Amino acid sequence: ARISLPSEAEWEKAARGTDGRLFPWGNTPSMEFANYGSSTILPVGSKPCTQCAFGLQDMSGNVWELTRSPLQAYPYTADDDAANLAEDALWVMRGGSFADGVGNIRAAVRGGVDPGVRNNTIGFRLVITTL
What we know:
Layout: E1 2-4, H1 8-16, E2 64-70, E3 91-94, E4 110-113, E5 122-124, E6 127-129
Parallel strand pairs: 2-5
Antiparallel strand pairs: 1-6, 2-3, 3-4
């Protein structure tokens, strides 16, 4: 098995599903399914969401999720996994955080961050691929 961060394309598909929804659960923002506009992070799984794309929890809000894709022009290309740490100073993060407003938790919103930065609004999600 291969364990890695998701590419930006993988992350967006996981969050938006196959119907292009605005949020992982549908097209209307909801504090029922995401931790945003808050002063604190919540434990993983605190906002259950059975209608979320692919049944994935916490795709919006709580913490921004780092991807393995460098911040480049959007939309990304199929070769966006060819990151070069020496040249690509910022990497894409997606999902918004507990400290963000509703505008940043939409599934299409992207941010850029130095992958060496650490704070309580940035986290990660792993992808496991069978070989």
